[in-house]
């Protein structure tokens, strides 16, 4: 298999508005990120993924761009961005930008022109029809918005304020490629491509049988031609890393985006876990891992993540954020870093930050949640019940400010934070984590170092030894005669794992575990709640 820097990398995602506020306006910013770069670098990561910081009215927190060539005021300015890039590179790290090319803001000059009249030259840059079909968007009951001025509907896969660009229009594509080159020529190291599987729309927009199953928005014919063109005209000319957000794909479909012979993207986020597994489901999770491994291995590259700015913090959603928070956070980290694919860390995950439950919808900011809340309440449902039903998966679970210390607002800002801080910041914060040698933070550091020193963790083949086990997840990674065994007890109680026959004669040597007092055992391992171990077998 071809060895590349981005397969070996560990990526750290910075949701800058919640990371560190340098000027007291309540929003994190690029200057704040610069001030905390040493913290990120010390963890050992290689790449920073920066959420969108382009000019934007911020209806969907930067995913509604109104000027691709400017930095939004809340984040800073272009001079600060350039300094950030320089400082990242100075530390030997790389920076990838989140880029949204499926849609813009309705305040983008292109859309303002497009909606101004039916014969405006930019009319065709967006998607206009006389009649809507029955599709829903991600965030609203209809994917179409009526525009009184010209008496037509425009199409939006997300919020009303995020009209979709018309990728069939060559001028649109050329403008986008030009803009991508602008950023790459500055020296950034790649893109995380937002909603990239949505670029192509089906001919004629036929009605869906079940409008609630919004798969029709993605993976339509034509998407691969667009990506191949983007690769040919832009991506292939730079030594960069690209990761696409590709929802609703099977491994077979996924391979079309990332196949090494396809000239599209390097890797993808598929959402079979985060979108389709609301709570922990061990058998399903193992099946997903196995299928994706078999589908991609040797042909294309996968990503590993269990949370991000859209998906509730992993220790809350898939682990135990109460009695075993520290053990559980470490177990989940072990999982993400030892399964095949490039691992992602979402800011705060490395100190075991948890999700939140605010008492009032007014304390939430997430447009997806707020729209859904309004839709359900309008149907006459009890508001309290609606709120409760939306809390676990609200995107604000992951968006609360980074918890730096136990001072007011967790040391995130001297002003009023744009989103409330999680009340548990007095116990869970960076200062505490750095002072405790057994913290989640230092465990991440060790995992990352292991990856640097052991190619088996990156390039080793994968074999699941525990397919039907509900609590224990045991698998091997193997490369050039080096064999590792990973055993995880994803459970609130003790469990025993007996090594299979073929491994029982090998001696095993513990490389890393999340309990300090592991006794070397024979072929029967007594695993404590949320215990994780990585062994080298000889
Ligand atoms: C996916 C992004 O991660 C999410 O935050 C955003 O709302 C949508 N795409 C729309 O751009």
Automatic annotation (TrEMBL):
Entry protein name: oligo-1,6-glucosidase
Domain Glycosyl hydrolase family 13 catalytic: 13-399
EC code(s) of this entry: 3.2.1.10
Naturally occurring in which organism (per UniProt): Anoxybacillus kestanbolensis
Database matches in SUPFAM superfamilies: (Trans)glycosidases, Glycosyl hydrolase domain
GO molecular function terms listed in the Swiss-Prot or TrEMBL record: alpha-amylase activity; oligo-1,6-glucosidase activity
Enzyme class, first EC level, given as a word: hydrolase
Lineage: Bacteria, Bacillati, Bacillota, Bacilli, Bacillales
Reactions listed under catalytic activity: Hydrolysis of (1->6)-alpha-D-glucosidic linkages in some oligosaccharides produced from starch and glycogen by alpha-amylase, and in isomaltose
Membership in a protein family: Belongs to the glycosyl hydrolase 13 family.
Superkingdom per UniProt: Bacteria
Transmembrane segments: none
Keyword ATP-binding: no
InterPro entries noted in UniProt: GH, GH13_cat_dom, Glyco_hydro_b, O16G_dom_2
Pfam families assigned to the protein according to its UniProt record, in alphabetical order: Alpha-amylase (PF00128)
SMART domains membership: Aamy
BP terms from Gene Ontology: oligosaccharide catabolic process
Keywords from the named record: Glycosidase, Hydrolase
């Amino acid at each position: 298999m071809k060895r590349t820097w981005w397969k070996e990398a560990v990526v750290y995602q910075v949701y800058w508005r919640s990371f560190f506020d340098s000027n007291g306006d309540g929003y994190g910013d690029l200057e704040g990120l610069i001030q905390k770069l040493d913290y990120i670098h010390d963890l050992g990561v290689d790449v920073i993924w920066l959420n969108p910081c382009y000019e934007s009215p911020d209806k969907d927190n930067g995913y509604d761009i109104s000027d691709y060539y400017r930095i939004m005021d809340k984040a800073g300015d272009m001079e600060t961005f350039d300094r950030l890039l320089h400082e990242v590179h100075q530390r030997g790290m790389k920076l990838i930008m989140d880029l949204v090319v499926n849609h813009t803001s309705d305040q983008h000059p292109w859309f303002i022109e497009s909606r101004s009249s039916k014969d405006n030259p930019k009319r065709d840059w967006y998607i206009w029809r006389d009649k809507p079909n029955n599709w829903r968007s991600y965030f609203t009951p209809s994917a179409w918005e009526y525009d009184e001025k010209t008496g037509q509907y425009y199409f939006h896969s997300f919020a009303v304020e995020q009209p979709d660009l018309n990728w069939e229009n060559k001028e649109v594509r050329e403008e986008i490629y030009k803009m991508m080159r602008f950023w790459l020529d500055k020296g950034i190291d790649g893109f995380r491509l937002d909603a990239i599987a949505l670029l192509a729309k089906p001919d004629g927009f036929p009605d869906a049988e079940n409008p609630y199953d919004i798969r029709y928005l993605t993976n339509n014919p034509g998407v691969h031609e667009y990506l191949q063109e983007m690769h040919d005209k832009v991506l292939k000319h730079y030594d960069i890393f690209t990761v696409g957000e590709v929802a609703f794909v099977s491994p077979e479909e996924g391979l079309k985006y990332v196949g090494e012979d396809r000239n599209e993207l390097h890797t993808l986020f598929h959402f079979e876990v985060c979108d389709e597994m609301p709570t922990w489901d061990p058998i399903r999770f193992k099946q997903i891992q196995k299928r994706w491994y078999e589908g991609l291995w040797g042909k294309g590259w996968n990503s590993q993540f269990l949370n991000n700015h859209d998906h509730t913090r992993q220790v809350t959603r898939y682990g135990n954020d109460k009695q075993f928070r520290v053990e559980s956070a470490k177990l989940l980290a072990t999982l993400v870093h030892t399964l095949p694919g490039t691992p992602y860390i979402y800011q705060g995950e490395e100190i075991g930050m948890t999700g939140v439950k605010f008492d009032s919808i007014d304390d939430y900011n997430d447009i997806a949640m707020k729209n859904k809340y309004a839709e359900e309440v309008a149907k006459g449902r009890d508001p309290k019940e609606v709120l409760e039903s939306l809390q676990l998966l609200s995107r604000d679970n992951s968006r609360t400010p980074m918890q730096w210390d136990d001072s007011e607002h967790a040391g995130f800002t001297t002003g009023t934070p744009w989103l409330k801080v999680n009340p548990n910041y007095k116990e869970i914060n960076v200062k505490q984590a750095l002072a405790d040698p057994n913290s989640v933070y230092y465990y991440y550091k060790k995992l990352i170092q292991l990856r640097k020193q052991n190619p088996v963790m990156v390039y080793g083949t994968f074999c699941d030894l525990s397919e039907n086990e509900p609590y224990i997840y045991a698998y091997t990674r193997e490369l050039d005669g080096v064999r590792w065994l990973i055993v995880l007890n994803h459970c609130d109680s003790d469990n025993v794992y007996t090594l299979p026959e073929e491994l029982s004669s090998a001696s095993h040597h513990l490389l890393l575990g999340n309990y300090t007092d592991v006794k070397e055992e024979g072929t029967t391992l007594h695993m404590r709640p949320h215990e994780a171990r990585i062994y080298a077998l000889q």
